[in-house]
Write a structure and sequence with these properties.
It is a single chain. This protein is mainly β. The chain has one domain: OB fold (Dihydrolipoamide Acetyltransferase, E2P), CATH 2.40.50.840. 6% of the residues lie in helices and 35% in strands. It has a five-stranded antiparallel sheet with strand order 6-5-4-7-8. The protein has a three-stranded antiparallel sheet with strand order 2-1-3. The protein is globular, with a radius of gyration of 16 Å. The termini are far apart.
């Protein structure tokens, strides 16, 4: 594995469930222990009922492109080889939205409403980044 030179997340006790899930090939988010709301971003309490109870739960990894943008401007030297690249807001089937990239297709092939499924990019031994791809055509 080549040395990964892009910014990496800081893994902490608060977000470890998410990153451990990604290493297992799963989108894993907090599920409220009282009302069942699946929340993201990670929080110490439920935004719906304010409960402090939660469990990390695996999600399907399926969703749709809610919005996206293609970056043509270089804002960080670490991404020089990637320009132009897309950043998509993905609406997960279970409710939360998250930012990531749609990979495996040209940027102009990504459209709002496209169905996507999670894929996982192990960039270091400690960090696996969730990304999304268009589902394979059967």
């Amino acid at each position: 594995m080549d040395e990964y030179k892009k910014p990496l997340p800081t893994i902490s006790d608060e977000n470890r469930g998410f990153w451990d899930g990604a290493k297992r090939g799963k989108i894993c988010m907090q599920k409220c222990g009282d009302c069942g709301h699946i929340r993201y971003p990670i929080s110490h309490c439920c935004p719906k009922c304010l409960s402090l109870k939660f469990a990390w739960t695996d999600l399907s990894g399926r969703g749709s492109v809610y919005s996206y943008v293609v970056f043509h401007q270089l804002y960080n030297q670490a991404f020089k080889e990637d320009v132009p690249y897309n950043v998509a807001m993905v609406q997960l089937e279970e409710g939360p939205r998250m930012f990531s990239n749609v990979v495996g297709v040209d940027n102009d092939a990504v459209k709002v409403g496209d169905l996507v499924e999670a894929v996982f990019d192990a960039v270091t031994p400690e960090v696996t980044i969730p990304r999304f791809k268009l589902p394979s055509k059967a």
